[in-house]
Specification:
Elements (H helix, E strand, L loop, with lengths): L1 E5 L3 H12 L3 E6 L10 H4 L3 E4 L6 H10 L3 E4 L5 H14 L4 E3 L5 H17 L6 E8 L9 H13 L5 E4 L6 E8 L6 E7 L4 E7 L4 H14 L5 E2 L1 H4 L3
Parallel strand pairs: 1-2, 1-3, 3-4, 4-5, 5-11, 6-8, 7-8
Antiparallel strand pairs: 6-9, 9-10
Helix pairs in contact: 1-7, 5-6
Length: 238
């Protein structure tokens, strides 16, 4: 498979290594200093572009890739509120393809399935209040993390006593999320169900970015054979 990389930071470099180790070809690498390469024949030859940049430019990157017929896998978060409707329309009605996930880790996909199942069970036990803590490296720009938002929305959908989530919120009907920024932590997400009698806790603790990078390459392999707006739930049938 021919892969283009959009964004060549730590994640981009790790994705490159894993893609090459799995027998794929990197045909184009686009970073901030060579944006003109979106118009190159090398970029247009890609089966899939893997995009890890920042929320301000992600949507424009999708448009530039789609313009030359390249499917996109993206792990950039915090753009959905502003451009979600346009992306959904492009994928549903204009033949474009985007595989988007707030987190590509296989472990997080499993954790997410456990989170949904646990929330469904805990809906029967109102004595347990729920909160979340997400911890990341000091360079992370958004809070709460995209993964925390995805997990929180899964809980709110299944727990009648929570109507929404909120960063540092304390209202009874709000799932409180606290963010911690320290060191070079790749990502820790902890969900607590606390009652007067006991507490149930589930945690995903990433040891490195390698799991995210492998998941992104797996998503690219899946996307090469599928179309439309794709998610982790499409790739992993738990």
């Amino acid at each position: 498979m021919k892969i283009a990389l959009i964004g060549y930071g730590k994640m981009g470099k790790m994705i490159e290594q894993i893609a090459l180790s799995r027998g794929h070809e990197i045909v184009s690498i686009i970073d901030i200093d060579n944006q003109q390469d979106f118009d190159s024949p090398e970029f247009a030859s890609a089966d899939v572009a893997i995009e890890f940049t920042n929320p301000k430019v992600a949507y424009d990157n999708y448009l530039r890739a789609w313009k030359v017929g390249v499917k996109v896998v993206s792990g950039t978060t915090a753009w959905l509120k502003e451009h979600g409707d346009e992306v959904r329309n492009a994928c549903a009605n204009e033949g474009k393809t985007l595989f988007w996930a707030s987190n590509f880790s296989v472990g997080v996909a499993i954790f997410s399935a456990v989170n949904k199942y646990l929330a469904k069970i805990m809906n029967q036990f109102p004595q347990y209040d729920v909160n979340m803590v997400e911890t990341h490296h000091v360079h992370k720009l958004d809070a709460p993390s995209g993964t925390a938002i995805t997990l929180a929305e899964q809980i709110v959908e299944r727990l009648d006593r929570k109507q929404k989530w909120g960063l540092h919120e304390t209202a009874a009907d709000t799932l409180r999320i606290d963010d911690v920024r320290r060191g070079e932590v790749p990502g820790i997400h902890t969900i607590n169900y606390d009652s007067p009698a006991d507490m149930i806790t589930i945690t995903h603790d990433a040891h490195s970015r390698q799991g995210f990078a492998l998941g992104a390459v797996l998503a690219a392999e899946y996307t090469a054979e599928h179309s439309g707006l794709l998610t982790i739930d499409d790739m992993f049938k738990f």
